[in-house]
Amino acid sequence: MAKMSFTYGLSLFFMSVIPGAWRRTAAGAGLLADDGTVAPTIFAEMSAAAARTGAINLGQGFPDEDGPAEVLEAARAAISAGANQYPPGRGLPDLLAAISEHQSRFYGLTVDPEREVIVTAGATEALTAALLALIDGPDDEVVVFEPYYDSYAAAVALAGARLVTVPLRAPDFQPDADRLAAAVTDRTRVILVNDPHNPTGAVFGREILAEIVRLADRHDAIIVTDEVYEHLSFSAPHTPIATLPGAASRTLTISSAGKTFSTTGWKIGWVHGPAPLITAVLTVKQYLTYVNGAPFQPAVAVGLRLDDRYFTEASETLARKHEVLGAGLRAAGFEVHVPQGGYFTVADASPLGGRDAAAFCRALPERAGVVAIPLSAFTSAHHRADYAGLVRFAACKRIEVLEEAAARLATGFGDRSSQRGRTA
Ligand code: PMP
Ligand code: GLN
Known about the structure:
Layout: H1 6-17, H2 21-28, H3 42-53, E1 56-57, H4 69-80, H5 93-107, E2 117-121, H6 122-134, E3 141-146, H7 150-158, E4 162-167, H8 177-183, E5 188-194, H9 206-218, E6 222-226, E7 251-256, H10 257-260, E8 268-272, H11 275-285, H12 296-304, H13 308-332, E9 335-337, E10 344-348, H14 357-368, E11 370-371, E12 373-374, E13 390-394, H15 399-413, H16 417-420
Bound molecules: 4'-deoxy-4'-aminopyridoxal-5'-phosphate and glutamine.
């Protein structure tokens, strides 16, 4: 093992004595080691591994192609036109109007652009602000579906509440209604939904959505729903939980431009819901970032008003990419769980000796020139074993990149397709 440098040793010492909420945040996200060190997030670690080794990065979910030209051009034009100072606290009125129009056009939802929606620094800020706003102490509980997007556990821990998890298990990663009912109690402040789901690719069935609404109503909980993959649902149009009977009055719906317009670096998100809930979220949000992304806000308004064809094609193109990725993974010997939505395909590496997916993923860049993320990064420590062999691969890359990744995996693990008598 490399000798610890003096400055690194010193920084360890300092971290271990710094009091504050950072410690429970890191612990909540599973990043705090016994010696007080804080690991980088799995996305940072794996993207660094890709840069170091030249491996193809199917880890962090970001597209390698630009989004629609008119959206990019609108951002350039906005900078030229002087949209370079603080936008209004709730967001640019034209973007608020575009979000409202979008929710009405796609889902029939009525959103008052002046009182029921705010623009945030990505979905991440909307999620964190909502949790900080709604949670009030260590006895409050937040129900999440596990595996979960990593910021959920971090934000719940930062807010000082308890995380209660409902498992999503292979092959279809749908929650069990009884487990869900057992998880929601009068202590539940928030049921946090993510549909379509990262990392599993599940799209929740209507009965489960209805059960969530029923339980939230019975226990007077708020539903916070993360729908950043709303336009990337493959087999059926997306159903926002807020459209179910009785849901809208207790639901905060969160989305973001990042996935829909391939602009993950712009960090323009939004949250809408009943005015009192939005006021509560805004109260916290305005002291996190206040505002962000002045020239990107009008550009996202342009995106949200693109015609239906753009949205249909975005979903069809990504579905096709998943097919290419899935075929490559099967050919290399993985067992593939076909996603119903979102950026990611989950595959079981156990047939390739990858029963410990975390170790498997750490070795993968050197072994096959590909980076992927173990599902254990999205689970709590005591449930890690249930997802031990599962690996998440991002499909939001150019087809030729996915084909090259498939070829590398086939070389790294030996192409099993001939032994199985099929190619996919
Ligand atoms: N929620 C989910 C499920 C995500 O996958 C992501 C990022 N890919 C986010 C939230 C964060 O979105 P944003 O970049 O808009 O903050
Ligand atoms: N949401 C993306 C993913 O799941 C990126 C997350 C991040 O880098 N924080 O991969």
